[in-house]
């Protein structure tokens, strides 16, 4: 990178299986030999946290590649084996029946064998692609910052896990959707899905003392901000409520960054503060309802990855002519 390259942070919003799109975006971005930007940080929430970790790990590990890690992880996460296909079909049928108004028994993840099995599978899958014990040896102070978000269930406080404390527990904390998993325990505290907190972390790039303030943040956005019509069916209302909830913290952080930019332009802040532009890469399938965030069928995952690669290609082309 040249001294004139902008400092760039990449932020990955959460969204379950929809973040296969994010995997495609990151695969294409990191395949570019010259991004015209110096990556100083990567953040993520829930499924976005997994993509952030894999892309970060591929950049700091001398023998791993971000694109290959993202491709192989999502290929294995897709429901290909019979047991996984059965579980995915059961989830999709349950969702379909619920949308039809068929009453279904509710079961807490604390008493669900399927929840415990899914947590174990998630941990084993992470361990196959990331050697968490080796991460401390990879940290020399020159690597991009890694920020993964979760929320403390009991205190309601946001939690950011950094690269020197990342672990399977930390990833599960960011991805522990409360209807699917027990609250994730980490050092005596209990966490839920980061979708309830920072989705994804943005202003933490500016407040982290060891991370250079980025000139640009590339936001991979999964939840649609706008809809063309008012939702009326129960399913549509649930979909839109989920989207709005997932965007609440994001919009608050975007407003904060906009305010800081205005203060900088008006000369209210010292020169060390950095004006930060937000560039968005939008999810290419906003027509999908939120329940498809639980769909792990191989065809669905592969299509979302291809959509992400195409969206990143368009993003890079637009930057090249700007």
UniProtKB/TrEMBL annotation:
Residues 10-206 form the PNPLA domain. The keyword Lipid metabolism applies. InterPro entries: Acyl_Trfase/lysoPLipase, PNPLA_dom. One of its GO terms (biological process) is lipid metabolic process. Keywords: Lipid metabolism. It comes from the Archaea. Signal peptide: none annotated. Pfam families: Patatin (PF01734). This is Patatin-like phospholipase family protein. It comes from Haloarcula nitratireducens.
């Amino acid at each position: 990178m040249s001294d004139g390259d902008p400092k760039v942070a990449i932020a990955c919003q959460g969204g379950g299986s929809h973040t296969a799109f994010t995997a495609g975006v990151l695969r294409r971005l990191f395949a570019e030999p010259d991004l015209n930007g110096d990556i100083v940080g990567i953040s993520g929430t829930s499924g976005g946290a997994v993509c952030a970790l894999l892309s970060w790990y591929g950049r700091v590990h001398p023998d791993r590649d971000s694109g290959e890690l993202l491709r192989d992880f999502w290929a294995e996460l897709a429901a290909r084996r019979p047991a996984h296909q059965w579980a995915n079909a059961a989830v999709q049928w349950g969702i379909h029946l619920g949308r039809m108004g068929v009453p279904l028994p509710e079961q807490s993840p604390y008493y669900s064998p399927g929840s415990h099995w899914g947590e174990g599978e998630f941990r084993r899958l992470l361990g196959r692609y990331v050697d968490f014990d080796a991460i401390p040896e990879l940290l020399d102070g020159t690597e991009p910052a890694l920020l993964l978000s979760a929320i403390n269930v009991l205190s309601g406080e946001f939690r950011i896990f950094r690269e020197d404390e990342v672990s399977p527990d930390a990833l599960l904390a960011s991805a522990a959707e409360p209807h699917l998993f027990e609250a994730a325990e980490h050092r005596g505290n209990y966490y839920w899905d980061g979708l309830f907190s920072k989705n994804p972390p943005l202003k933490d790039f500016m407040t982290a003392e060891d991370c250079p303030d980025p000139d640009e943040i590339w936001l991979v956005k999964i939840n649609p901000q706008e809809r063309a019509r008012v939702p009326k069916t129960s399913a549509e209302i649930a979909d839109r409520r989920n989207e709005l909830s997932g965007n609440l913290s994001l919009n608050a952080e975007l407003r904060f960054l906009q305010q800081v930019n205005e203060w900088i332009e008006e000369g209210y802040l010292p020169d060390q503060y950095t004006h930060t532009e937000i560039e968005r890469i939008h999810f290419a399938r906003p027509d999908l309802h939120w329940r498809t965030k639980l769909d792990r069928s191989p065809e669905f995952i592969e299509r979302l990855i291809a959509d992400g690669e195409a969206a990143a290609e368009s993003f890079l082309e637009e930057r090249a002519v700007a």
